[in-house]
Design a protein that fits this description.
With 244 residues, the protein is mainly alpha-helical. The protein has one domain. It has ten helices and no strands. The longest helix has 28 residues. The protein is globular. 44% of the residues are buried.
Length: 244
């Protein structure tokens, strides 16, 4: 049990370190570690709770800049997609979950390392809202299944041609909103040992605080791009290990 708690705390620390440093990939980092000691449902629920805490802090900082006219299609898509992902989570076994997550880690990290130059997507306003909702829906399914709802909206915002600040004011609230939905739906629909979950959360809280604080310091010490690439190489190696 002490080994499990230590590994859970380590995962929370490293994931919060990444969030503080580069602002993305919390679920990917944390799941790559927790998957060795926790079942899929517990991973998703605990990761969603931790993500809600971290993203709430971030969203509050730029709450006045959020454009709800851009955000609402993503939120509707998320509300429709998360239940499907949670339903799938109830029927997936640990080995299949590990292999699926390994594939997603490899694909994500390889894509982000290569960063091909993609064309901007130009759509009429109505079509754009439908496409945004579709991205939110697919990402909601991934969020309900494995808390992987942040990657696709981040890429999609870039394809829409939005600048860094405008993009963040869309995908960051979306990530937080989806994490809340996942937390509630997994908690209500998937059987999890609440006593153990509480112990794991207690182990996570100080690790999250220290990791976030240190990550913000690292952000000031080294370039964001250099640390981002280091994290991606670690994610790639972890994904390959999960497939072995």
């Amino acid at each position: 049990m002490y080994y499990d708690l230590a590994l859970v705390a380590l995962g929370a620390f490293l994931a919060a370190l990444v969030i503080g440093s580069v602002g993305f990939a919390f679920a990917i980092v944390v799941t790559g570690i927790w998957i060795y000691v926790l079942p899929p449902a517990t991973i998703v629920l605990l990761a969603s709770i931790c993500a809600v805490l971290l993203h709430s802090v971030n969203v509050w900082q730029f709450r006045r800049e959020i454009e709800f006219g851009l955000l609402w299609p993503f939120l509707i898509g998320s509300a429709l997609g998360v239940p499907l992902g949670v339903l799938a989570l109830r029927h997936v076994d640990a080995a299949a979950f590990r292999h699926l997550f390994g594939v997603l880690m490899v694909v994500y990290s390889a894509f982000m390392l290569l960063r091909p130059r993609l064309p901007l997507v130009k759509l009429a306003p109505a079509a754009a809202r439908v496409a945004d909702a579709g991205v939110g829906w697919v990402s909601g399914i991934l969020g309900g299944l494995a808390m992987l709802h942040g990657t696709l909206p981040t890429v999609w915002c870039s394809l829409r041609g939005w600048d860094k600040r405008r993009s963040r004011c869309v995908y960051q609230p979306y990530i937080g909103f989806t994490a809340i939905l996942v937390m509630v739906m997994v908690g209500l629909n998937v059987g999890v040992d609440t006593v153990q979950l509480g112990l794991y959360l207690l182990a996570c809280l100080p690790a999250l605080a220290v990791g976030l604080w240190l990550g913000l310091r690292i952000f000031d010490w080294i370039s964001e791009e250099r640390f981002r690439r280091l994290v991606l190489w670690l994610i790639l190696a972890s994904g390959v290990a999960l497939l072995a």
